[in-house]
Design brief:
about 190 residues; 5-stranded antiparallel β-sheet; single chain; Thiol Ester Dehydrase, Chain A; alpha+beta; 3 helices
């Protein structure tokens, strides 16, 4: 009986560590309790932090569409960049200062986009940008592209950026930029 109990407790602790790591990376909070007698996770509550979006409006240009008047899929990634730069401005810093004054860049390492409905020529669209997760070395942004008139979701996506120096080697965010990404001060 004792060996079975110990295996259950070890399993529950392993599950706890995995959940803690995954939910921390996604910027979520969670709580749970374990029964002392069997090591079983009795309940779990998952609270996802509501993103603090910065909104940017753009009007679809003819050059961004195909012959049918529908926005070419790669332009959504360009709009993600427009939203990212606007997010930096809204937070109180210029991305160009990060590069010029601190020799740091945020290199795109991963990009995803889920297309839901087409955007068309001359429509106004709303690009919503927020931080999904951030560390000293990796920053993840999340995006929503919506039709401004109706609020309809046209696409959603995420980009992951690795902080690098001028030699394109992994680096850390400068200390004074940590606050913009809601990171605690370094000790």
């Amino acid at each position: 009986m004792g060996a079975v109990f110990n295996k259950r407790v070890r399993f529950a602790i392993t599950v706890e560590l995995i959940l803690r790591r995954v939910l921390t990376l996604t910027g979520s909070r969670f709580s749970f309790c374990m029964c002392n007698e069997c090591g079983y996770i009795q309940r779990m509550r998952h609270e996802t932090k509501v993103p603090d979006y910065v909104d940017t409006v753009v009007k679809v240009r003819y050059a961004e569409t195909d012959q049918m008047g529908v926005v070419y899929y790669a332009n959504y990634l360009v709009w993600f960049e427009v939203g990212r730069v606007a997010w930096c401005d809204a937070r109180g810093f210029r991305y160009s200062d990060l590069e010029g004054q601190h020799d740091r860049m945020m290199m795109v390492a991963e990009a995803t986009c889920r297309y839901r409905a087409p955007a068309r020529f001359e429509e106004e669209i709303l690009i919503r940008t927020a931080i999904a997760a951030a560390t000293d070395k990796v920053v993840r942004f999340q995006y929503e592209v919506r039709r401004k008139r109706t609020g309809e979701l046209l696409a959603s996506g995420e980009t992951a950026h690795v902080v690098v120096d001028g030699s394109l080697r992994p680096a850390r965010l400068p200390a004074e930029y940590r606050k913009f990404f809601l990171l605690p001060d370094r000790k």
